[in-house]
Write a structure and sequence with these properties.
With about 60 residues, the chain is α+β, with helices and mostly antiparallel strands. The chain has one domain. The protein has helices spanning about 15-20, 25-35, 50-60, and strands spanning about 10, 40, 45-50. The protein has a three-stranded antiparallel β-sheet with strand order 1-3-2. A hairpin with a 2-residue loop joins strand 2 and strand 3. The longest helix is centred in the middle third of the chain and has 10 residues, at about 25-35. This is Excisionase. InterPro entries: DNA-bd_dom_put_sf, HTH_17, SinI_DNA-bd.
C-alpha cells in the first residue's frame, strides 16, 4: 500500500452526528447515499475528519 494514514483522523458516526448537529441516522443515510465517504470496520463506519470539514465548509442545502 502506497498511501499513508498517519495524518488521517477517523471519526465515529456518533462523533460526526454531534459535530453536524444531526442524528446518527442522518449520517448513516449520507454515507449510504455516497454524500459522505466512510470506511467500514466490521459492523461500524469511520468517517475521515477531513471529509466532514469539507462538507461543512461547502454547506448543505436540501431545497424542495
Amino acid at each position: 500500500m502506497t498511501g499513508s494514514f498517519d495524518d488521517v483522523r477517523f471519526l465515529t458516526v456518533a462523533e460526526v452526528a454531534e459535530m453536524m448537529r444531526v442524528s446518527k441516522m442522518t449520517v448513516y443515510r449520507m454515507v449510504h447515499a455516497g454524500e459522505l465517504p466512510a470506511i467500514r470496520f466490521g459492523r461500524s463506519f469511520r468517517v475521515p475528519e477531513s471529509a466532514v470539514a469539507e462538507l461543512l465548509r461547502g454547506g448543505i442545502a436540501d431545497v424542495g
